[in-house]
């Protein structure tokens, strides 16, 4: 209308931006896994957008879980019927490939062209006038990696390129273009349009303003009825863009439509934007564009691949954290432990639990129970050492095994236990070692020497490479070498042993030749240094020998009451956790449940930390005991340890082959002779239960 | 004893609030009241909307409509920080070679400040008998935000509230209806402090009206996520 004197600038459009809700990928993954399989034919999808609603941020074209076609009749949880003002539907198409190579090889050029052609044809045929959302048709290519739960994708918003490009005569806020009355009427008409279910998601419309400032909004198809009765006629559209200097992308195909259907050279357009749910004429823009009419019947060129931070590369997203079932299991278990800390034990140190490496010597009734309880505490690193195979009588008492493990020749326990742990919690780091533990008092031939010494070395290495060792074997003498090695390496050792109806759980004291760090010495712990807690063998005046026949505490588990192993195994784990949480760790003093000054409860958030726990189910009773290390101990005394350090293998061989060697070494032989002659006063006797101290007189 | 049990069958419907806990019907009523007051008195925010759950089984006589409150796409602008999660895609950016020789009609935009969007849902927990606030955050392109990033968006007052209070902490759990992990303010302490709140506010032993339950609840919980109620809502 007006004279065009101002220099004409090329009309520049702000590109559309995509946004893919996590829910879309979840739904798409299900669709692919459940229904599509490797079928990679294109999928029709629906995108949603709304006019800009904030002066600083543009709106996006969004894909939600309901963007995918659903074949079930029941409406989904988030039902989106037509008439949602924030979700104007736009048709699109998804090309998903099955490999990343085929993703890269897609001919983007022709895919874009094909979609643009559809838009052109809809314009030509008039379909776009009937259903204007067709003007914003879009395209997505993707590659969904359903093993890694990562998704690579690329949007294209096909736009028909006008040649020569449209030029911009002027662009200003709508409030400056309209008079005050006109603006009021336009706002009201827009709000009505947006409030009605029938029109709220129609993104292109005609605004006609009569000479008496009354605005009317009509569908595009009512173009004919708009002729003549207006002073101003604008082409309105929902503009996702927020910029005051540029209109948004949907205007591109809109201009192509206007030029083609109605042969207009001058186009007044209205970029409709909102704020707080109402029309905002300050944010909305009115502009005048000039287009060159063209008689071309062929589809123009098209552009529209979305840039990723300015680069022509696809986008990607990894949703492993919310979709990978193993990760979900890990975070659920972590949450459980955190809840315990938040609600009950704020000073609980969970990091030490998740990083501790536990070595379980024995994968029988005790081993299985210990492993299960360790997992409950979030301990993830467990190694099993066991020589045996799962026998038919095992699964009912050994909680990691099932019937399948003993069918046929039977699986090795160490192997079956690892498998079981992984089935319970996939993130477990667990290894099984099939190995026998060398035992003193069971003499070996010279041919066996090499392999036995090899096993000793292996055991020693295992103990070195773990933080805590559980002695859960079924004989007394098989605990000797591990006890010695733990004392030598100063590793936490937890010992559990079962009688027919009684149990004993204890933690070994620190090794003899270790010294506390300087800080601890400053805390006046010198006394502790000389008062190491005892180990399993400190109590006993008899060296470990062949005991398979008549030692109550070490009979085969098959003749113990079934309730004992779960009790003892659980106590063993709670004792370990107590040690790990205690500031002094392996050096912690032993507490007694009876004594009031038995350890400072503030030292550990979990309560007291005893040295030994003994209980019975015949009495349903349990007591705590305290035993100091014995200088004559055959496993942890300074004498024995230094002899081991000096002579290594020959020491071990002698202990294995000569039944009295250890007693001679530690002076127990002398002691026994002396005891035979008169009564003795044990200085370190804090134990009440003399019955359990074996004295073989 | 038996007589009393039978009498219970004909007892009047449960109090919507008892001991800090809320019934399902109570929640529905309280939720509408809350949304209504919010719309009227808290116009700096968009309104909450009620999302009904379509009950597929007709076992429950649906005089009580199950649903939850939803407030979505609250956004804050945060400064564009390092985005290290962008795994190097090992793609050569020469995909669109011939075509798209620079089209001058496309505005070249600088990467602006990143907008973070938040969705909030208030969902009723039958096992705890209290409402629970679920939330999630995401970037403008849909990428979900991790808890570390979200914590940076929280007002500084709430971060200390989270650390000190033993009643408010954020956990990540499966959203009860959407089958995806959302963050939530764990509800295990809610009953306790709601009791305290209602004791303080009630005088002469009369109970907190159910219409105010969610308002009171949100006055505490909302602070953690930076959503404030206005004083008028408490009337």
TrEMBL record, chain A:
Highest taxon above the source species: Eukaryota
Residues of the active site: 557 (glycyl thioester intermediate)
Major localization class: cytoplasm
InterPro entries named among the record's database cross-references: Atg7, Atg7_N, Atg7_N_1, Atg7_N_2, ThiF/MoeB/HesA, ThiF_NAD_FAD-bd, Ubiquitin-activating_enz
Positions of the THIF-type NAD/FAD binding fold domain: 340-582
One GO MF term: Atg8 activating enzyme activity
Location of the Ubiquitin-like modifier-activating enzyme Atg7 N-terminal domain: 11-323
Pfam family, one: ATG7_N
The keyword Transport is assigned to this record: yes
Localization per Swiss-Prot or TrEMBL: Cytoplasm; Preautophagosomal structure
GO cellular component: phagophore assembly site
Gene Ontology biological process terms, A to Z: autophagosome assembly; autophagy of mitochondrion; cellular response to nitrogen starvation; defense response to fungus; leaf senescence; negative regulation of leaf senescence; piecemeal microautophagy of the nucleus; protein modification by small protein conjugation
Keywords: Autophagy, Cytoplasm, Protein transport, Transport, Ubl conjugation pathway
Function: E1-like activating enzyme involved in the 2 ubiquitin-like systems required for autophagy.
Family per similarity comment: Belongs to the ATG7 family.
Oligomer and partners: Homodimer.
PANTHER family xrefs: UBIQUITIN-ACTIVATING ENZYME E1, UBIQUITIN-LIKE MODIFIER-ACTIVATING ENZYME ATG7
NCBIfam families assigned to the protein according to its UniProt record, in alphabetical order: E1_like_apg7
Protein name as it appears in the record: Ubiquitin-like modifier-activating enzyme ATG7
Upper lineage: Eukaryota, Viridiplantae, Streptophyta, Embryophyta, Tracheophyta
